[in-house]
Amino acid sequence: MDKKGPVKGKDMNDLTVMEDAAVAITNGNVVWIGSVEKAMNIQAEQTIDAEGKLVTPGLVEPHTHLVFGGSREKEMALKQQGVDYLDILKQGGGILATVNATKKANYEELLDKTLFHLDRMAMHGITTVEAKSGYGLDRDTELKQLKVAKEANVKHPLDVISTFLGAHAIPPEYREDPESFLDVMSDMFDEIKENNLAEFVDIFTETGVFTVEQSRRYLQKAKEKGFGVKLHADEIDQLGGTELAVEVGAISGDHLAVASDEGIEQLAASNTIGVILPGTSFYLGKDIYAKARQMIDSGAAIAISTDFNPGSSVTENLQFIMSIAALRLKLSPAEIWYAVTVNAAHAISRGHEAGSIATGRKADIVIWDAPNYMYIPYHYGVNHAKTVIKNGEVLYERQSIR
Ligand SMILES: N=CN[C@@H](CCC(=O)O)C(=O)O
Ligand SMILES: [Zn+2]
Q: Which amino acids does the record list as binding Fe(3+) (predicted)?
């Protein structure tokens, strides 16, 4: 699966599958791929027998809100009563509740919690993760989140790629003046760049949050400072965020649950990857799912992700999201695999090292308790990862209880 760029449209069905294959790893990288028979000639220091099970690239998770304080289980009752996600936010709950908890948490607590969630992701077969800030909404707390993500990248074997999402909500003190709030956040760009604290800048373009015009100006500034840009776009209300993602040359437009037909056409004709987060539709109890089928049929490149966060999608299990992608987005198993490997890696600028098993790439590999690639989305809600290998080292091995 040595793909140079994201895989688009109908090519997402053209999956490379080898039977009876073997992979040789040296110094954390894949150095050879071939048949088991030929592999018998290789003198290996260590051999792992995959026992005929499915072996794939490690999953790449291109959209998470990994670093946060607290949890929001009390909101579940409100959701059951039909209180809308944006109304909870308007009343100071939702994202703003997590902002308060994140402000209160000290650096060490946040780091511990982040490492815990990364462990869980690794146990579920994820080997590369994008992590957004956005639960600070003030300079110090945003920096605290970004520093935690940077340290987590060093301390934890998984690769953590950081995104600055200071423009995630309007804090109450700026309710009447969101422009000034965006100025405060964009004033941080230089410091973030100089300290290597984020590669991407993201914004929540949504009713009651930031408008298309505000988002355009903010993202242009980010681009001028050398950041790649991303958007939370067309998640709940159709504001034209998909079109904006294409217009500003975003590496990805994320959510896109209510993207217009015109937006989908533009996405298909662009280099922007649609990062679809069907876990949020599921978890917020909505019937509206992104038209991922139409996007691929129109020729777009799609990735899928958990959107792991404490409010709209509380799971580290990307395998479960793969099942939702099959059942609700109507994607084929091959499309789903591209969406969680090659395309997910390209959505965070890691297409050159992650998302495929190819010579010269990192040896990020998962052996699954599954007979074939179609099996993972089919058998839903459980963890199929048996052995997770990161940079050539076994990171996780499922213990047997028998
Ligand atoms: N929609 C905006 N942000 C997150 C949710 C964050 C939260 O509810 O805490 C998302 O991608 O769904
Ligand atoms: Zn998100």
A: 63, 65, 232, 307
